[in-house]
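Ticket #4471: structure output looks truncated?

Reporter: J.K.
Steps to reproduce: submitted the chain below (256 residues) through the standard prediction queue, then opened the result file.
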Amino acid sequence: MTDVTLFENRDGIAHFIFNRPQARNALTFEMYEHLREACEKANEDRSIRALLIYGAGDKAFAAGTDIAEFRALQSAQDAVDYEVKIERVLSTLEKCRAPTIAAIAGACTGGGAAIAACCDLRVAASNAKFGFPIARTLGNCLSVANYGRLAHIIGAARVKDLLFTARLIDADEARLFGLVGEIVAPEALADRAEELAKTVAGHAPLTLRATKEALLRLRPPMETGEDLVVMCYRSADFQEGMESFLAKRPPQWRGE
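Returned output as attached by the reporter:
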């Protein structure tokens, strides 16, 4: 792995770090792939009893996919392939043999929030902000699988609240929604996340694994939603969203 991510097994607790603090840990395709590889390592290495995921610095867990990566989407198939690629990462994380814990400070938005939603446990610093502001910024959409994950955690009404208003919620509201289990001071986040990982790592692995798998089996199967992905990612609005975001100006939506 390159230095955009870091991975280390510390006495059975694997630490995976998004390491682009200067870019609020915005996710490149490479970083997504590194996360998938970290989960595969946790699946293969039985000494790993928990996987702890966090972002470098205190400004962001991960502030979504790096907008520059979207410039590579030149066709409908590119858009579908992008979502397939990201789903492969998220599904691997969700099914990881080891319990996964997201330690969240600062911005946890877009793809970063999707990653956090796939983790088994989430602990947040009091400065954390959550959301999917794409209706305000880019004009794209989530995959059907990600809508399903969110609805499974917080319910369809709250998913609509987040997506329709494009607002970011603070740590207290995220806890009310059920997105995080506990909130700590920013300076206490690392120690609390490590403590939680050690607690989980000390419990019966098969019990934890059976619990994860049982809950996944309870979730209804999802349609692919490729038509929705193509509708958004191949729209004039999405092109406008990218250009306006990079130019730091308000987008002019046309609904086409």
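Triage note (M.O.): checked the attachment and the full token line is present. The chain has eleven helices and ten strands.
Status: closed, working as intended.
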